Amino acid sequence: MSQIKDNSTSFLIAAVLLIIATAAVFLLISQMQPTTVLSFGNGIFKARIASTAASREKGLSGVTELGPQQAMILVFPSDAAWQIWMKDMKTPIDIVWLDHDKKVVYLYENALPDGSINVTFTPTTRARYVVELPVGSIESQRIRIGDTASFEIKLGDVE
After folding, report:
1. pTM surpassing 0.85?
2. Cα 50 from Cα 59, distance rounded (Å)
């Protein structure tokens, strides 16, 4: 009888551990985002790619610090005057809008988080990509309107 009880307990523990491990793997996979190397101006950044509606909406929400060579590229399905808001942002950023040829068409420096969606940053021209950079990057990396960015996005990375 004791052997059956020991086997049942071992089976139960193994089942619980398997469920926990499966949930952890699923959570990690869902949190992973594709990345690319982004260069423009004098800067080279490791950029996360946000190409789905959900990942674009989340953006950098909740990020408490953006390292000097980190960035996020928001990839949109078409050219438009894509607005950016700072909902749940914890740190200021610089924002760069790129057209479909990856040419810089609009810049906004020192976008401050205010915790709401009421403040938006809107370009004066249409863009396909929006790049969120650490605050001060536009100035320090000499990013200018007319510069062309370089990065690769695989088809599997796009919605």
Report:
1. no
2. 7
